Amino acid sequence: MARIDRRELAAIFAGGAGGALLRVWLGRQFSGASGGWPWVTFAINISGCVLLAYIATRLQERLPLSTYRRPLLGTGFCGAYTTFSTMQVEIVGMIDHGRLALALAYGLASIAAGYTAIWATTASVRRSRLIA
């Protein structure tokens, strides 16, 4: 049985608390009109993809290995900051209100923009490594 690293769990908890607080604050500060495109959730998820790609690429390829950076920033912060579960609830709500085209567009745009953000960020971090 694997031994539990309490410091790693503490790093995940601390990062998760920070990510969740930021997500809630952004959601409250920039909440939009109900029934339309959920821009706040979309922006949070795409910026979370950018941040996670940056963190993962930078930590893996550029910085010295650390036991707690990835759990703190990747698993904890980005895991709590991004809100793909909210995206799913919003899509179900759109479908329930007969807005099938909006639900499909939102789901596809979120996935496409997320993967594009990951690809572009990873390429950018790797390119900056070659320049530096």
- Count of helical stretches: 5
Number of strands: 0
Sheet with most strands: none
The mean pLDDT is 90
Hey, roughly how much beta strand do the residues contain?
A: under 5%
Structural class: mainly alpha
Order of SSEs, N→C?
HHHHH
**Dominant shape:** globular
Percent of residues in helices comes to over 70%
Q: Nearest-angstrom radius of gyration?
A: 17 Å
Distance between the termini: 43 Å
Low-confidence stretches: none
Any overview of this molecule?
The chain is an all-alpha fold and 132 residues long. It contains five helices and no strands. Helix 4 (84-96) packs antiparallel against helix 5 (100-131). The longest helix has 32 residues, at 100-131. The protein is globular. The protein starts with 5 loop residues before the first helix and ends with a helix. The model has no long low-confidence stretch (mean pLDDT 90).
Attribute tags:
132 residues; mainly alpha; 80% helix
Describe the secondary-structure layout.
Layout: H1 6-29, H2 39-61, H3 69-81, H4 84-96, H5 100-131
Question: What's the short version?
Answer:
80% of the residues lie in helices and 0% in strands.
